[in-house]
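Deliverable D2.4 — example input (structure tokens):
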């Protein structure tokens, strides 16, 4: 791999040719703030939070879309850069509700984090503000466009990750709005409720309905697990507060699927608290199911399987497993069938 050498903050660094300044900085442990950039989406260069100073360039280029060139001298935290970032935040906050006290995203909101980091308490720019109605028409996603900073991440996620292309930009200038075709609510749009837009939104504009009012983001424990709904086996984090699941959060470092999930994985988790769900084994006694202990159920299963094997032979048994089980569970079914029941009559529902 061909490398380029450049200076960042007075230190010589190397990066693969074709890297942007932002990628070169990240590779070398130098953090540059970003709002519209996500490494799993195409770069857009719209928010300008990632501006840097490059010697010989009187403008402040956006590092997420500027190639790192050999011999370049870059400053990521110079006074001019800090000043520009502060102004960008002040411009964003000029048309943003100061709702951090009750916003569900605080603690995982890049806008609030950067305002804190750069000391932006209020905006000197005074003018008209949007007052959009909140779209909570659907069961999964709260959509508050008053908190949108127009970073375009949701538009790109819907197009590039889901391929649904449900979102785009309406109008120009101050009236520009990220919305659906015809500016209808999600419920009446082509949305398939994968929630990719929610996963990439850096502010409280798009949030998980199930988590509204349930927890501050820093109270949430993330527990990595595998989706139980299909054989793709997507990974995600259960959002847990006080030992109770309140939602699902996807993560770009999930090995199978990255940040992508479908509607079942992201929003179908609430079955775990469904009152109709079986929580203890049922044994049929005198024609009626009765609750039993796990020990009693396991003893009965072992006794009956042994009886069948002794009376009718190994070939009388077959096991049918499921792609909804984990690899480990399917392995156990296979091992039990072959090693204990003594045949190869094992199959699963997703083979055909
Ligand atoms: S939920 Fe999925 S399909 Fe719907 S707008 Fe968001 S990314 Fe697009
Ligand atoms: S809704 Fe969120 S992700 Fe979409 S443009 Fe606005 S701030 Fe960005
Ligand atoms: S998130 Fe959807 S695609 Fe992924 S494993 Fe679950 S059901 Fe399958
Ligand atoms: S992160 Fe580079 S312009 Fe937005």
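Example output (designed residues):
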């Amino acid at each position: 791999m061909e490398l380029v050498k450049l200076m960042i903050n007075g230190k010589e660094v190397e990066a693969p040719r074709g890297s942007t300044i932002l990628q070169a900085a990240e590779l070398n442990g130098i953090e540059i703030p970003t709002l519209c950039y996500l490494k799993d989406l195409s770069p857009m260069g719209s928010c300008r939070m990632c501006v840097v100073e490059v010697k010989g360039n009187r403008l402040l280029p956006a590092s997420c879309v500027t190639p790192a060139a050999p011999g370049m001298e870059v400053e990521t935290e110079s006074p001019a850069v800090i000043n520009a970032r502060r102004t960008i935040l002040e411009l964003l906050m000029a048309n943003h509700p100061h709702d951090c006290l009750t916003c569900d995203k605080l603690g995982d909101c890049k806008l609030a984090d950067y305002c804190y980091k750069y000391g932006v308490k209020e905006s000197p720019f005074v003018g008209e503000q949007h007052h959009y109605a909140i779209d909570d028409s659907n069961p999964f996603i709260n959509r508050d466009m008053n908190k949108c900073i127009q970073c375009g991440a949701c538009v790109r996620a819907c197009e590039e990750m889901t391929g649904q292309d449900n979102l785009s930009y309406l109008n120009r200038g101050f009236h520009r709005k990220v919305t659906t075709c015809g500016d209808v609510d999600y419920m009446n749009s082509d949305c398939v409720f994968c929630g990719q837009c929610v996963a990439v939104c850096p502010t409280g504009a798009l949030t998980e309905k199930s988590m509204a009012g349930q927890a501050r983001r820093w109270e949430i424990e993330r527990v990595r697990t595998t989706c139980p709904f299909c054989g793709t086996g997507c990974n995600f984090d259960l959002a847990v507060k006080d030992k109770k699941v309140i939602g699902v959060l996807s993560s770009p470092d999930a090995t199978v699927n990255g940040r992508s999930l479908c509607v079942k994985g992201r929003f179908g988790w609430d079955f775990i608290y469904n009152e109709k769900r079986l929580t203890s084994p049922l044994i049929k006694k005198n024609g009626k199911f009765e609750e039993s202990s796990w020990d009693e159920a396991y003893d009965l299963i072992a006794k009956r399987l042994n009886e069948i094997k002794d009376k009718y032979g190994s070939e009388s048994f077959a096991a049918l497993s499921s792609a909804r089980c984990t690899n480990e569970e399917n392995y156990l079914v296979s091992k039990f069938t072959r090693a204990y029941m003594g045949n190869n009559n094992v199959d699963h529902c997703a083979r055909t």
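The pocket of iron/sulfur cluster (ligand 3) is lined by residues 227, 229-230, 232-234, 257, 261-262, 264-265 (CB under 6 Å).
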